[in-house]
TrEMBL record:
Limits of the BAH domain: 22-148
Keyword Electron transport: no
Domain of life assignment: Eukaryota
Biological process terms in GO annotation: DNA replication initiation; mitotic DNA replication checkpoint signaling
Family membership noted in the UniProt record: Belongs to the ORC1 family.
UniProt region (Disordered), positions on chain: 162-193
Subcellular localization, as worded in the UniProt entry: Nucleus
Subunit and interaction comment: ORC is composed of six subunits.
Protein name per the record: Origin recognition complex subunit 1
């Protein structure tokens, strides 16, 4: 857009364009080169100065934001649709207010009144809320001093004469891994609940919340542990019935029954957010330290997290992000953006580019175009860039033959100006060595973490913490569930599902809900029979010997590859090897294809419909735990 720069001391500069030369002086509003050529950055020029070597000219600016630059989850705070020409005065600390003078594209007119032809500003944005703009902030100030309410040039701990200037807040001491760390996570949800519902204790629940629980069965009652009617009188239900009336006490009786019978079931649901994450304190602390250090330093990095399903990988990362966002809201660390993609939710691995770009910029383009835009975004320096934390779940499903998707995801954080932190999750610990070529594995780095399966004592602790001092299970019944699941897979989600179902069975086994007692051994056994006696498990138990052997071959190949998908040829090699181990005559290829087709007809396997040859792709339609449980019962 411009051919050259004619520098004239440090008072002004001229931008030479295609048709005219524009002189830029402090106090003017300017356009600055950014990631999007159609929408460059907008700022107010405060002054020019030279760098330490006096070879490069720099500028001090006050930033303005377009709505597209505000994080997606905070745009609704505006409460209305913005005008295309509307910008916002930026009062945050995440952006560097020093830029290279060469990045200035030209001047622009910015006003405070609503003008359809020029940019205008009426509100300010401080990374937390939109506020009415103070007119004092828009007044012209001397070129030698920045506006007083604008971004501080020096952090609170530094003197104005100290050089070099520190760009971030002061590093604070990190806590050691102990229960206090997890209570910090719980305090975040408590704070949010207080902000949204007003100042009230966990037992002070509004009538609207109680009606919502009665009508939908869910609730804000997830954190309530009251089992005494005297504690429920604190609830604000006087707006519905006169205090002391017959309807008032009937209302309390109904709510008491709801709390007594529904709260254990709700808390044991896998989708409920626990108050803490027991048995994962060390993993929580390690991930927290890694991400926080990258956000504080403004650098990038990768971490590979592995573990069998149900060991708390995704939940721990979400808890870490929740704590970091709370720390950012309290101005303890710089602001950052968190986005998440899941390989299971994509039809093609290259859709990862589309989803990442859409969550960053709200643009929806083709995969190739998205990859090019992301390459430009993470490669080029940009003054208004905050750290992005990207969570990639089910990483193994992003595998392609050329592995270009994985390579880019691991390579972008190594770029100097990327400020990208990538957290990847997969089920296989040695996935990089198994399927990644050397150039991809080298970009991943050596920062890895493995989540071990839960032991039966840890599963007991998880269930007890979910119930939060509500006595709902007999000790023997709780131990039976924990030992049964720990011996099979150590999957906490499976354990919670069994306990929830046992609670429902106990509730419906009595004539009146208020007389429901503790969950006993017989309730747990009935729940176990239901969970492990589905139609799929019955079909596996009734399958022929070769079909059961083929399912074992599928699981063996999945574990060898570290993926959840394989070709028929790969599975057939495993099937022949297992046949020799079992002392059986290996079957032919045509017989193997017939076995595979029968399992696909029963929907135990998902087969690629477009081809019926050796390269046909095969996936399981049931969990590996269910297959192993059914095959174990058959062999026993």
């Amino acid at each position: 857009m411009f051919v050259g720069l004619l520098l004239s001391r440090y008072l002004n500069m001229s931008v030479e364009g295609q048709e005219a030369v524009t002189t830029v002086t402090p106090g003017q509003y300017i356009l600055i080169e950014g990631n999007d050529d159609e929408y460059p950055f907008v700022a107010k020029l405060l002054k020019f100065f030279g760098d330490e070597s006096h070879k490069q000219k720099k500028a001090l600016v006050q930033w303005f934001l377009r709505l597209s630059e505000v994080p997606q989850n905070k745009k609704l705070l505006l409460g209305r649709s913005p005008h295309p020409q509307e910008i916002f005065y930026y009062l945050g600390r995440a952006c560097d207010n020093e830029i290279n003078a060469e990045s200035i594209l030209g001047t622009v007119d910015v006003r405070q009144d609503n003008s359809p032809d020029t940019l205008y500003v009426k509100l300010s944005w401080d990374t937390k809320a939109f506020n009415v703009l103070d007119p004092v902030l828009m007044q012209d100030t001397p070129a030698s001093t920045p506006p007083k309410p604008a971004l501080p040039l020096f952090p609170p701990c530094a003197s104005p004469t100290a050089t070099p200037v520190s760009r971030g807040p002061v590093r604070r001491a990190l806590p050691t891994p102990d229960p206090t760390v997890m209570r910090r996570a719980g305090s975040v949800s408590d704070t949010r609940a207080t902000m949204s519902a007003g100042k009230r204790s966990t037992l002070e629940i509004s009538a609207n919340d109680l009606l919502l629980c009665l009508s939908q069965g869910w609730a804000t009652l997830m954190g309530v542990g009251a089992t005494k009617k005297s504690e429920l009188i604190m609830m604000d239900c006087s707006c519905l019935f006169p205090v002391g009336s017959r309807s008032y006490f009937i209302y309390l009786d109904v709510i008491f029954v709801v709390l007594l019978t529904c709260v254990p079931v709700l808390r044991l649901h896998v989708s409920s957010v626990p108050e803490s994450l027991p048995c994962r304190e060390q993993e929580f602390q390690d991930i927290y330290n890694f991400v926080e250090s990258k956000v504080m330093d403004g650098t990038g990095g990768c971490m590979y997290i592995s573990g069998v399903p149900g060991t708390g990988k995704t939940a721990t990362i979400h808890e870490v992000i929740r704590c970091l966002q709370h720390a950012s809201d309290m101005d303890e660390i710089p602001t950052f953006r968190f986005i998440e993609i899941n390989g299971m939710k994509m039809t093609d691995p290259h859709q990862a580019y589309v989803q990442i770009l859409q969550k960053l910029t709200d643009q929806k383009v083709t995969a190739d175009h998205a990859a090019a835009l992301l390459e430009k975004r993470f490669s080029n320096p940009a003054p208004k860039k905050e750290t992005t934390v990207l969570l990639v779940d089910e990483l193994d499903l992003l595998w392609t033959r050329k592995q270009n998707v994985m390579y880019n995801l691991f390579d972008w954080p190594t770029r100097r100006h990327a400020r990208l932190v990538v957290l990847t999750i997969a089920n296989t610990m040695d996935l990089p060595e198994r399927i990644m070529i050397n150039r991809v594995a080298s970009r991943l780095g050596l920062t890895r973490m493995s989540f071990q399966p839960y032991s039966f004592k840890q599963l007991q602790q998880i269930i007890t913490s979910r119930l939060n001092k509500v006595k709902a299970f007999e000790e023997d019944a709780l131990q039976l569930v924990s030992r049964k699941v720990a011996a099979l897979s150590g999957d906490a989600r499976r354990c919670l599902d069994i306990c929830r179902r046992a609670t429902e069975i106990c509730e419906h086994s009595t004539s009146h809900p208020s007389s429901a007692g503790l969950v006993r051994m017989n309730h747990v056994m009935e729940a176990l029979d239901e969970m492990f006696s589905s139609s799929y498990i019955t079909a596996i138990r009734c399958a022929s010997l070769q079909e059961q052997l083929f399912l074992r071959a599928v699981i063996a190949e999945f574990r060898r590859l570290g993926l959840e998908e394989a070709t028929f040829q790969q599975v057939f090699v495993q099937h022949r090897a297992l046949s020799r181990v079992e002392g059986l005559q290996p079957i032919s290829v045509s017989e193997g294809l017939a076995v595979c087709q029968r399992l696909g007809a029963c929907r135990l396997l998902l087969l690629e419909a477009s081809r019926l040859d050796m390269l046909q792709r095969v996936r399981l339609n049931v969990s590996q735990d269910d297959v192993l449980y059914a095959l174990k019962a058959v062999r026993d």
